[in-house]
Amino acid sequence: MIIGVDVGTSVTKASLLRRDGTAVVTRSVRSSLHRLPGGRVEQDLDEVIDSVVQVVRAVSADAALAQVPVEALAITGQGDGLWLRDHSGQPVGPAISWLDARAAQVLADWERTGVSREVHSLTGAGMFPGCAGPLLAHLAEEEPERLERAAVAGYCVDAIVHRFTGEITVDASDASMPFLDVRQRTYSAEALRACGLAEHRDLLAEPAPRGKLFALTKSSAELLDLPAGLPVSAGPFDLPSCAFGAGVRNPGDGVLVIGTTLGCQVLRDEVVVEPDGEPAGMWLATPYPQHYLRVMPAMVGTANLDWVLRVVGVDVSQLESLLGSSSPGANGVAALSFLSSSGERAPFVEPNARGQFTGLSLDTTPGDLVRAMCEAVAYAARHNLEAAGLTGEVSACGGGARSTAWSQVFADVLGRPVHVPLEEGVGARGAAMAAWAALGDPVDHERWAAERRTVHPEPRAAEFYERGYRAYLDTIENARPLWQRGAPGSLR
Fold first, then answer.
1. What is the reported pLDDT for 269?
2. How is domain 2-235 classified at the CATH fold level?
3. How far apart are CA 274 and CA 264, in angstroms?
4. Rg of the chain over CA atoms, in angstroms?
5. Whole-angstrom distance, CA of residue 274 vs CA of residue 258
6. What confidence tens digit (pLDDT) does each residue in 236-289 have?
7. What mean pLDDT is reported for the chain?
């Protein structure tokens, strides 16, 4: 078996996985996310490492009790952000989360001067404040001494691998955003120059070759209660791992990760960058030759549901009954789901995008408000999946996919079946799939994808939502000029 580890933004999980994709046991532990003034969001690398140690030791003990040999340690986790380290893997300052907004002004300047569009035309990457490009530029201006002390500017997964194996590396999926030419799997010198970061090229680790495995050092093996020299697989990071772990197999297939935000991905067999297109989303390299993921990482998701539930004074345990109390169309109430303070980044880029409810009356119920928001998030999912090139099957995973009623809304809005894996830890599954392939013993992808429940669209609801989706797109087009003029603020 393989121990698959998924290091999320706030929870680290480890699963002991069989070759059929099922988990024998899963352990989890929370880690801290530090929110600070100025839009800073940080994590402590040592605390994250400790969270991995805790869950891996627990799962390793379970494997020993069952007398099951562990073939490899497969690691995936959150992407983007900036995890600066020295040569020995020690942190150079706190890790900067992908949620961080300190570089928002840098990105605003790049959008105004055309840098963002130039980078997008070179690599297909649509940047946002929490990705490596603007964060590196911000540090170069505000904290140059940190970059001088750093040996590598990497990400969560490679920071963990660095500590456990002593190797400085990066998976090509992580490196894809924003400087990698994913077709060649090499960094674009032109993109680095456009961002004013050419002198910091040496901080970017070379992407590991496909199928590369590393080995646990003796000290790390003792720490993790695993054999020294055990193969370690480093990626892909959580978005592509979730895609493959959820069942994406053929070009045109898509996956919807319904988490705090939406990760909308479609597998493609070629990279198509439209120079004059919307500079949104990204292209990710994958472990599989001639396969790429077109990703639209929207800022809407279960955070929207949490917000509206708080507004109406209930918790998530009442979601099913609330959705059941309001029919499709929410009795005339419609919503836009752009509640993030940083606006939207996919499938369009609007830092000032904001949410709204329309059609309210004295007859509006809490169920109507909840349904309208759930429908708005589903419309956003369709918008992103279509922009990413969806033509095949759709799988869904994440916390939102556990709701039967909300899954039905997604299927009805998409107008196609939505397949939900029975095994929830799809990120660890995707990492384990890559590890077995690297070991030369790939798993049966068809068999892994078969263990799922399928939510079929209801024809009448799908027909209704087809009209609703067109109205949703019209509303966005009418709202964008207002957003671009900026919010009026508030009286103080």
1. 95
2. Nucleotidyltransferase; domain 5 (3.30.420)
3. 19
4. 22
5. 27
6. 999 999 999 998 999 999 999 998 889 999 999 999 988 777 889 999 999 988
7. 94
Q: Would the CATH topology of 2-235 be identical to that of 247-421+456-485?
A: yes
Superfamily of domain 247-421+456-485: ATPase, nucleotide binding domain (3.30.420.40)
Secondary structure string (H, E, C) spanning 264-319 = EEEEECCCCCCCCCCCCCEEEECCCCCCEEEEEEECCCHHHHHHHHHHHCCCHHHH
Question: How many C-beta atoms lie closer than 10 Å to residue 375's C-beta?
Answer: 28
The dihedrals phi and psi of 85, each to the nearest 5 degrees, come to -135, 160
Contact indicator for 312, 363 with CB cutoff of 8 Å: no
Q: How far apart are CA 256 and CA 410, in angstroms?
A: 10
Reported as a single tens digit per residue, the pLDDT across 441-462 is: 999 888 888 789 999 999 999 9
> Do 367 and 325 contact (CB within 8 A), yes or no?
yes
Question: Quick one: which of 279, 249, 280, 287 has its CA closest to 266?
Answer: 249
Taking the domains of the chain in order of start, what are their residue ranges?
Answer: 2-235, 247-421+456-485
Q: Quick one: tokens of 221?
A: 């093996």
